[in-house]
Each structure stands twice: as structure tokens, then as C-alpha cells.
Amino acid sequence: MELRSRTAGELLRHLQETQDQFATLKFQLANRQSTNIAQLKKLRREIARVKTLLREDQLRRTS
User: Of 18, 20, 23, 60, which residue is 20 to 30 A from 42 by alpha carbon distance?
Assistant: First the structure.
């Protein structure tokens, strides 16, 4: 499902899930349980995309 078609609630839920995955992967990398640095980059960008969409929605509602 494309991010732009999701509601604010769905985006917030997706943001929380992605942030949890990011924290888990970062912990695994620190403990050398994983070496998937590319996944870390992907999750960081996904978090930024979702935050951008949430901010756009917030600005659209206030104007």
C-alpha cells in the first residue's frame, strides 16, 4: 500500500513499527548479531518519508 493513500492514524502506526524495527536493528548491529547496514539506511529513509507525509498533512489542515 502506498504511503500517500494511508490515513494519519495508519501513518503513525507505520512510523512506530518502523522506528521499533530501526531500534532493534541498531541494537543488533551494536552487538554484532547483524551486519545488514543497508537495511538500517532503508529504515531511516522510510521513517523520514512517513514524518514528511505527516507534516504535510498537518500543514494542509492548518491552512
Answer: 60
Q: What is d(CA 56, CA 28) in angstroms, rounded to the nearest whole number? A: 33
pTM given for the model: 0.90
Q: What is the pLDDT of residues 14-34, one digit of tens each?
A: 999 999 999 999 999 999 998
CATH 1.10.287 fits 9-62, yes or no: yes
Domain residue extents for the chain:
9-62
Closest CA to 29 of 18, 17, 41: 41
What is the Cα–Cα distance from 15 to 36, expressed in whole angstroms?
20
